Amino acid sequence: MGSPYYRDMDEPTSPAGAGHHRSRSASRPPMAHAMDYPRTRYQSLDRGGLVDPHDREFIPIREPRDRSRDRSLERGLYLEDELYGRSARQSPSAMGGYNTGMGPTSDRAYLGDLQHQNTDLQRELGNLKRELELTNQKLGSSMHSIKTFWSPELKKERALRKEESAKYSLINDQLKLLSTENQKQAMLVRQLEEELRLRMRQPNLEMQQQMEAIYAENDHLQREISILRETIKDLECRVETQKQTLIARDESIKKLLEMLQAKGMGKEEERQMFQQMQAMAQKQLDEFRLEIQRRDQEILAMAAKMKT
């Protein structure tokens, strides 16, 4: 075929079957190339064989800043793997051309094509890396602005929300306590109403006895009051009569004095008689006053009993 690999395969192993062996080896090179070509294609796809490690290596960010940045890096790695997988998927057409190309020129053309594709992919990868760096910078600046500007506002809002939640919880607790107290008060009122109904339906014997005693005492007091009123009236009548008698006595005394003066009695006797009559009248007045005071005290005592 022209290459030493094919010459080694075309050499006869024995002089007896030289022609037959040469005719059989003529049909083998496509199989040998088919078995050998994937290894050559795998070596061409190895990024360490044809490209400088500094050009192909993707240096990850050693200090992760944020989850969003890690996700963007993972997205870049995924794009890189997708691009290399696409180049691998595009290679079978070139492999078919190589199998049908039959020569080192086709191999060199295939390698050149792979190198060209690899450079295109490296260029695209560099563009993607630059875009990734720009997005990371924008993301970092936006995160910085969020931390510097929005963090105090968010803290204030969180503090206000915490205070409001605490107030709401306190109000809810107070409402629960008030509702329980209202329920207890309602139950107590119901119990008292039931007790009152039972007592009204079935009055107690002690209460009945007390009420009867009170009614009897009230009747007794009413009778006593009526008696006292009658006695007061009698006393008033007696006082009036005593006043009239006193007035009559005064008139009689005056008449006697006039008669004595007319008869010519001495002044000493006249004076003694006047003193005796005055003492008798004063004694009667004192007796009347004591009787009236005693009656007044009895009336006041009865009024106090009626009030109690």
UniProtKB/TrEMBL annotation:
Pfam families: Cast (PF10174)
Coiled coil (residue ranges): 111-138, 175-245
Keyword list, A-Z: Cell projection, Coiled coil, Cytoplasm, Cytoskeleton, Phosphoprotein, Synapse
GO cellular component, one term: cytoskeleton
InterPro entries reported in the protein's UniProt record: ELKS/CAST
Subcellular location: Cytoplasm, Cytoskeleton; Presynapse
Annotated spans, Disordered: 1-53
Main subcellular location: cytoplasm
Classification via PANTHER family: BRUCHPILOT, ISOFORM J, ELKS/RAB6-INTERACTING/CAST PROTEIN
Name of the protein described by the UniProt record: IP09541p
Organism: Drosophila melanogaster
